Amino acid sequence: xxxxxxxxxxxxxxxxxxxxxxxxxxxxxxxxxxxxxxxxxxxxxxxxxxxxxxxxxxxxxxxxxxxxxxxxxxxxxxxxxxxxxxxxxxxxxxxxxxxxxxxxxxxxxxxxxxxxxxxxxxxxxxxxxxxxxxxxxxxxxxxxxxxxxxxxxxxxxxxxxxxxxxxxxxxxxxxxxxxxxxxxxxxxxxxxxxxxxxxxxxxxxxxxxxxxxxxxxxxxxxxxxxxxxxxxxxxxxxxxxxxxxxxxxxxxxxxxxxxxxxxxxxxxxxxxxxxxxxxxxxxxxxxxxxxxxxxxxxxxxxxxxxxxxxxxxxxxxxxxxxxxxxxxxxxxxxxxxxxxxxxxxxxxxxxxxxxxxxxxxxxxxxxxxxxxxxxxxxxxxxxxxxxxxxxxxxxxxxxxxxxxxxxxxxxxxxxxxxxxxxxxxxxxxxxxxxxxxxxxxxx
Amino acid sequence: xxxxxxxxxxxxxxxxxxxxxxxxxxxxxxxxxxxxxxxxxxxxxxxxxxxxxxxxxxxxxxxxxxxxxxxxxxxxxxxxxxxxxxxxxxxxxxxxxxxxxxxxxxxxxxxxxxxxxxxxxxxxxxxxxxxxxxxxxxxxxxxxxxxxxxxxxxxxxxxxxxxxxxxxxxxxxxxxxxxxxxxxxxxxxxxxxxxxxxxxxxxxxxxxxxxxxxxxxxxxxxxxxxxxxxxxxxxxxxxxxxxxxxxxxxxxxxxxxxxxxxxxxxxxxxxxxxxxxxxxxxxxxxxxxxxxxxxxxxxxxxxxxxxxxxxxxxxxxxxxxxx
Lengths: 443, 323
Fold this sequence. Notes:
Chain A is mainly alpha-helical.
């Protein structure tokens, strides 16, 4: 399937080029985000009736993992409110062109941190506390506020969106899975970029800001680090930036060779499986261990969580590919072949999320009418009873997602194995076993 | 600064101020009574002010599990307080005083500690003199051992007792019944020609004559709602909290302020004839009214009316007698 350039459509192009539609969405999202913080801090401690829990961990998560990431890649990052206050502060403006002289320190992020290891760590930090975080409004409020202030602080110390690019716990996996999305931002003609003077898409101009994501669009080959902020569309003096509709997982044809990205794939795959067992499984002892933070049982849970993600899953994968005959270093084969885990991990998360989202979606109606648990009934839905949705569809949909994910990852493994010239069989077997395990955990 | 920049900044600042200010304002204007399990604080606030003749509107919410709300010694149906939901209640007081409100759902091990007070000020048009309680006027030591030295082999039958009672010099009055234990009555019948078993049947009859079916139904309801959690549905001291209370022991008491010296005891077994047949209704009235003083048995004097306590006492004896 050929690419379709969406920016050829005047309405889309104008909507993306203008700052106003995006600003309107930003303001709404920022108000919602701040309200979620406040609801977490002053609203009812009962998670199922608090806006912060229901709208962040049920509504937002459902939109993110079931719609935004699979179909729009970093579409969420395009409207995320977290970096906005910091970015406005950094620029000293909301819409006006930046001053020549930076207002703040404007440092470059040290080279050792210019990878996604910090994002891997920040995700794991939240993941290890997730049972409490996902159910306790005031902890959710504190975490949301911390992310907002961390983004503001980093914007005043480092250049561009350092938080989004290197620290955001969500941005890391969105970037990884955005490679599978059928949307991309790319240049139209490479030669135009080569001869372009001043590279305003990266350095900024009177038309707009240099890429907030620290990416030179002329060199973009993957979605991973493009935040779809559309700034380069506004700054490119040659109209050389396009937003394209493309086949799913187009970026995976060229496997990554980075270990931080490879481990991200294992972290996400393992987390989905562990969550399926802990949050949806019938084992009360595991739930207690995950929930009782600070106890011996919780430390055991943490040790097991980290061992599965950093030792068991990558270890078994390494054993599987150890004997693939190839002159390439094992590390490179490991990183390249782990690309196959990206569609698998995404579909694991889709299957897992379907379960708790459909089970808990009816809480959205309640929290919409009484977001703080103060007895309001704004839209007449405050007394809506809890009702799991589409229960008869759940198991078939999850099976379809998991089996589809397996086929998708097997196809990706074939391509990745072709690139490094080894057999894809061990990776396919690995994915098959993981899928069987996930099916058992979910069904 | 150009116009669009200015408008953008205005919208952003207004939006942020509204998203913070409006919820805070509305939140501050909605005072809620929060119910939490006693281990996590119980009622908050736990002291409420009210005035005679002025309706008291309360908004109550639960922060954890399902609780119930009722006010002691008042004609009102208890209402459920659900997690994250707000329950509206309006109370009217016609007499000043300190009323106790309490949880009516078995919410946790220390459920019975979930109490608060409503301080009602104002004057009463119909002041009632305080009545003297029987266990006080009899000067009973509520904590002294009172086991019956002799117990029947099976459940004494009131029906059999009625047939035997006709020619016996026995006082069937409420005063006599309330101030004597079944064993004391059994002992007073020792001068008769009745066998031990027959004497116990007569005792059962005496207890039945001082017990109405309404009283038993009321007592049963009160028992099921307030006592069965610890003493068990069948009175055997094996309620759902009994094991937890025994397991928690002293440590459970130490979690509560000012309760360091208390020692938790297992709930009393009302099916034990030795214990029950040695206790008079007046003694049981005192135990219910005052509570167990550190044993884990709560005081019910501020919650039950005197009539309710007599109903409960009557029901508790039904574990011993065949009516």
